[in-house]
Amino acid sequence: MLVLTRRHGESVRIGPDIRVTVVASNGGQVRIAIDAPEEVGIFREEIFERVAAANIEAASVTESMLGGLETARGMAGRRAEGEIDE
Amino acid sequence: MSELIRFESRRVGTIEVEESAVVEFEALPGFPNKRRFVLMEHAVDTEMAWLVSLEDADLAFVVASPWTFFPQYDPPIAREHLAALGIEKRDDVELLCMVTLSGKQIFLNLAAPLVINAANRRGMQAVSDDPRYTTRAPIPSLDAVAGQSSEMQTSGLVSKIAASSPGA
Question: Whole-structure pTM over 0.90, yes or no?
């Protein structure tokens, strides 16, 4: 991990297209401005972590869990060989 | 007819799909190295599908169209998401939400839907901090859903993307 010291008004480039600028710092808080191409997603780490945790939970859903639920009717039955028969 | 891929998934069994059915995802949060997935359709009357990894035999998600359960859903998708996927036409956008369970209650992740460009089969998870939606939105009662689902037009969503069985 690269660690840099920057003053108010100074920037860091990440690749040619992304610029992170310290616009204010006050006590324990730092305010940063980010210039990046439109297609680059920028979000607070907490948001990302929340989605990651939700995804990991989602990956643990099994067919047998779903099998007990009415709305998932059809899922259980179509499994295995029926799914991809030639 | 593109190349046929065969993959042994421990989650859903053997799958055989054409290369053209594969959706290439930008890394999903929590699963940084898994990119190639295929959407497996189920019975016609089901509201859910499997999003199965073609790189990890133990990885699969249950996904659903959010509108089946939340007709008013307004997905928190930003222009950056559309740009990242090269989406040009609204019709090319396909949207699915991951499913989680707790006991008999089913939840959808409405805060971070999966967005797929059906035209080039690229996908990503639209991460946002939209305060309207949660990663665990409980779906309405099963009875309500069962009565409603036959009217939903959103089943086309799955059929456009999914690897349908050759016989279908």
Answer: no
State whether residue B33 sits within 8 Å of chain A by CB: no
Helices and strands, counts by H and E, chain A: 3, 3
From the CB of residue B168, how many other CB atoms can be counted at a distance below 10 Å?
8
User: What is chain A's alpha carbon radius of gyration, rounded to the nearest angstrom?
Assistant: 23
Per-residue pLDDT, B84: 87
How far apart, in whole angstroms, are the C-alpha atoms of residue B157 and residue A69? 22
Reported as a single tens digit per residue, the pLDDT across A50-72 is 999 999 999 998 877 776 554 44
B143 Cβ contact partners less than 8 Å away, ≥ 6 residues apart: none
* DSSP assignment letter at B31: B
Note whether A52 contacts B30, CB cutoff 8 Å: yes
User: Which residue(s) pair with B24 in the sheet?
Assistant: B36, B122
Burial of A21 (0-12, 13-18, 19+ CB in 10 A): middle
Per DSSP bridges, beta strands B4-9 and B36-40 are unpaired
ipTM confidence score: 0.82
Mutate to test the interface with A, among B48, B125, B133, B148 (most CBs of A within 10 A): B48
Query: Which token pair is B155?
Result: 């089943």
Residue B142: closest C-alpha in chain A? A71
Most confident segment among A14-18, B16-20, B88-92: A14-18
Which residues lie below 8 Å from residue B39, measured CB to CB, with a gap of 6+? B21, B23, B49, B50, B51, B52, B63, B96, B158, B161, B162, B163
